[in-house]
Write a structure and sequence with these properties.
With 201 residues, the protein is mostly helical. It has five helices and two strands, in the order αααααββ. A two-stranded antiparallel ribbon has the order 1-2.
Amino acid sequence: MTTLIPNVLGDAIDDRVAEALDDYLAEGRLDGKIRPRRSAVGIATLVAGGVAVVLLPWVLILAVTLPSTYQANNWNLAWIGLDLAIAVTAGLTAFLLHRHDPRAALTAVAAGTLLVADAWFDISTSGPGLDHHLALAQGLVLEVPLAIAAFVLASRTLKPPRPERATIGLSVPARVPHVAPRRPDRGVDWPQHRSASGRAV
């Protein structure tokens, strides 16, 4: 009976250790290669890099194959949707700024990006002559400056606040308390007594 209990406990411990080793091996920790679990930021980095790598050669293909003119359908719907998206993101930015919500940086970036896209397509799709000059002026005077202002606003909203000086009460700066000096031969502070001559002893 006395030998049975240690054997049962030993088997249980061995089973738990084996399960833990199986988990570690499944995660690739004990095979000589350290493969940490990928975080959401790491996955997003891989996806963004993959999109950039794929789109760069695709742009070259489009530059060679696409015609310079094309008759588009739903032309009015495309521009209405773009301007509506700019209005919605600008309105959300104003609302979030009014509530002092840091998520205003997200809507500001979206609004700035849409403004740049609006200027780009206005200029690149406008006809020659007066239409092109008007689109160019509208983009340079109105849309691009507003986009830059939105990006600056987003960067300032995301910037962490500067550390302030420690204060006591409302406006009194904190002061470090004065510590009395220590004698080398004593481990505790001692009060300074003055002799009759006025010298500290």
